[in-house]
Amino acid sequence: MSISIICPTVTAAFNVTLVVQAVGAAAPLAFAIGTVAMLLVAVSFLFFTRKVAHAGAAYAYITRTFGKRAGFIAGWSLLLTYAGFATGQAALVGSFTAAALRGFSIDIGAAWIGVGGAILLAWWLAFRDMRLAGRLMLALEMAAVTGIVVLCSSILSQVRPGLAVTAASFRPSTHFGGWSGLGFGMVFCILSFGGFEGAATLGEETREPRRAIPLALLCTVIGSGVFFIFVAYCEVVGFGPGGIAALGKSAAPLNDLALRYASPRLAIALDVAAALSCFSGLLGPLAAAARVAFALGRGGLAPALSRVHRVHGTPVIAVALAALLIAAPFVFWAPLAGAGDYYSYTATIGTLLLILVYLGVGVAATLESWRERRPLWATLCVLGPLLLLWVLYRNVYPVPEFPNNLWPYVALAWVVMAWVVMKWRPAVIRAELPDTA
User: Fold this and answer.
1) 364-382 as b/e, with b when 16 or more CB fall inside 10 Å?
2) In whole angstroms, what is the distance from residue 238 CA to residue 233 CA?
3) Measured between alpha carbons, how far is residue 298 from residues 293, 341, 433 in Å?
4) How far apart (Å, rounded) are the C-alpha atoms in residues 52 and 183?
5) Angle subtended at Cα 273 by Cα 125 and Cα 107, rounded to the nearest 5 degrees
6) pLDDT per residue over 197-214, tens digit each?
7) Are 225 and 35 in contact (CB under 8 A)?
8) Domains parsed from the chain with CATH numbers
9) 3 state DSSP class of 231
10) What is the mean pLDDT of residues 313-334?
């Protein structure tokens, strides 16, 4: 689930170009530092997942330290985060499918929106069997990653980069502001890991969760980080020293590289693999959003949300609510914005809320470890929030151009809505929090 929420294929297809715009050929270095930074953020989650097995994940962790009000705001924020990630991925399913069909000279135009009906299939899988869904998510993502690795291997075998080219990829570029530019580029690197904690929402459905969940989170961050560094290096090498500007402007770098170093067939195969990967990226956040809705419902928001199917063992009402939160904006907003922009907008809103949750978990883990007289853990846990404050700052200043300047206000409005819900449903701050021992 964590891998599907991160959806490494989307980073290979989109985020690398964003990093290149900021740091140039040093994109692999930025991802290397970003991986270390996210490991520091992950430390706080490892601290809690070894103690707490709860479907609400960060909702339970923050409640444990700061009380139900702060915990509810965290859970409420996670709900929109996962819904935002999922609905954006649904648009990319349609976009990549349309791109693959264009390889066969079939232009479906705006009909890509119909492929987003994959939301219905994702809903059925999340409702039916999470074990099947989990295996499917992993298989789809591995298929996409395999295709990208094949392309990267072809690039390296043909280019055979020397030491000078490799060294340039792992030192700050003076043409892009040196370390200052590298720091800005790391923002996009860190956002590429957003959702790595998703597996924690399965804490109540996993055998030996206090062992399996921390291991899943740690492996996700390390494995994804290695993949990001490798792909960024291959894309930089593939475009060459004189093609860095072109890489930064490319709307489909994997397609461009496949046509140059492989074949049109591989370009089509990568589009198909990306579409399948994005379906995995839809299914994972949908399942995570359902678990958070289940936890909030059980915590006083709405008892019906805590209903579990007697055969499948899944939170049936919560899954349906999550699917609705994903489908509604997709139907009414995605056709107007277009697939790429819609993904960018919804992912940005979700990420801003996720950063707030990460901050809360980091501070909570710092305080808990200090109370337990574990100074090393406290030191490691506090580094994550300090880093995230900087990342949050870089997302709101300098003020982005319209309409991107609106998304911080959308995220803030969602947080304010949590206070309104707490006034409307005071039970959410009185109900006991189970399964936190």
Assistant:
1) bbbebbeeeeeeebbebbb
2) 8
3) 8, 35, 9
4) 34
5) 100
6) 988 888 888 888 888 999
7) yes
8) 2-429 (1.20.1740.10)
9) helix
10) 92
